[in-house]
Amino acid sequence: MHHGIGKFLAASASLAVVAVGGTITPAAADDSSHDNRVLVVVANFKDRKHPDANAMRDNAIAKYFGADGSLSSYYGQVSRGRFTFVPAVKEKVVGPLTLNENAGCGDLWKVRQDVEAQMAAKGLVRKRDWDNLSIVLPHLGCYWLGMGSIGGRFTWLNTGDNDVNEGTIRHEFGHNIGFGHQIRYLCNDGNLVDCGERAAVAGRSPMGGNGQAGLSATQLIRLGWLSAAEHQRATGSGTFTLRPLYGARQGTRALEIPMGKDSLVLEYRRPSGSLDTNLNGVYAYRVTGGAYHTASPIVVSTADHNGAVTELHDKAGKVTVKVTGQNTDGATVAVSLGGAAAPAGTAPSVPVTPAVTADASTGPATTPQDVADNADPADPDGPADVEGTDTGTDTGTGTGGAPGTAQPTAGGTPGSRSTAPGATGRPASAGPATAGAAGNGGGTGSPAPNLAETGGDGTAITLTALAGTGLVLGGVFLASRRARSRHRADQRP
Q1: What 3-state class would DSSP assign to 206?
Q2: Deepest in the core among 95, 196, 288, 417, taking most CB within 10 A?
Q3: Angle at 104 between CA 163 and CA 448, to 5 degrees
Q4: CB–CB of 295/218 below 8 Å?
Q5: What's the whole-model pTM score?
Q6: pLDDT above 90: percentage of residues in the chain
Q7: How many degrees, rounded to 5, is the angle at CA 308 between CA 307 and CA 312?
Q8: Where are the domains of the chain?
Q9: 462 and 384 in contact (C-beta within 8 Å)?
Q10: CA distances from 58 to 17, 61, 64, 164 (A)
Q11: pLDDT digits (tens, 9 = 90+) for 350-365
């Protein structure tokens, strides 16, 4: 339900909590709103509990609904007031609820069904009373820190020390609103024809492992969060000015350059308030068939994991892009189309009307979709886990495609090792890391079908896909760099 951002944040100042045994009050409905109501439930397993339930609830309230740095404030800021996540109940966080299952890394759908049934028994029903369900679990020694259904309603958070990571929350809810993992596309020396390696995350949004970044321009376009004046399509050669994506200056924030059936989208990122604090430059994305939500971030070198560009070219297509300057107000970009020189003082373009690119049958990207339950294990022959050079300061990621699908790439679907040097892969048949590792509470196997597991500090990443279920989950590996380094050392002759 839509509440104005200021009105919502003021309401969020109260840190009221509720125990499951108490009365739970649905938040008042506001028919003018399009924001998603989140039911946050702190849950204990039968044999494993949060060490301090009160501290965990307070932490969850702050991380989901606090005035600064929370899920709600983040999405309110990146959408510029168009959308955010609001509490489904006046108490903001419910719990602790006791599950009927023992601790384990396996069947998260069963955990979700248990929570949903217990909440329904207390009068909180899906769609009528809440849009998204987020389950805050006690610490598990699993290979994930968070899971989220792409285009769906559900997230699971694996906590530690009564704390849930805000970057992980942003990332998992990014899955809920329709995004997979953001994997960079290496175009050697800026040659847009010589592109192929997709071996690491692009740190340009939480979906690319950067919890300090806003969403990328292509993600904002997909959600309809850029106006026609802010999203321009070049119609000829010229010199264009890009305003910072999250800056105060009005103007073009996304410049789209036609490339046959594909297009190239440029954005200018620099620190803007609490967003993009570690980005500075012009960034490029390749869009295939108008699918902005699966746009591929372009880098010209693996040395810069965020991948700002200075020049890109497609000689056969007679397209050249060159960044000619940048400052706090904006960046200038010379674009040559059809081989014609880019004259100064000319910027021929047309505005692009905002349009959510979700399929008409599934509704807007921010509207969560129901998916069929499926208890089958993930495909053991799924795509490979690939290491990259990205850091994992908040939450690293693997890749993803359209909602409910896995995006195929050569050699399997790549992911990222947050601090590993270089890029190596393992056979697709290796599948994800074993979930039944020590400390997981006895669970084994994958948590649910179609997993896109996303990483945190010192993590590795994989994407496993199982066709036909319409669900992809994002999660986080807890494998250490040191252990992988020792493994590689052991394999050397």
Answers
A1: helix
A2: 417
A3: 100
A4: yes
A5: 0.75
A6: 54
A7: 100
A8: 5-138, 185-351
A9: yes
A10: 8, 5, 10, 11
A11: 999 986 444 333 456 7
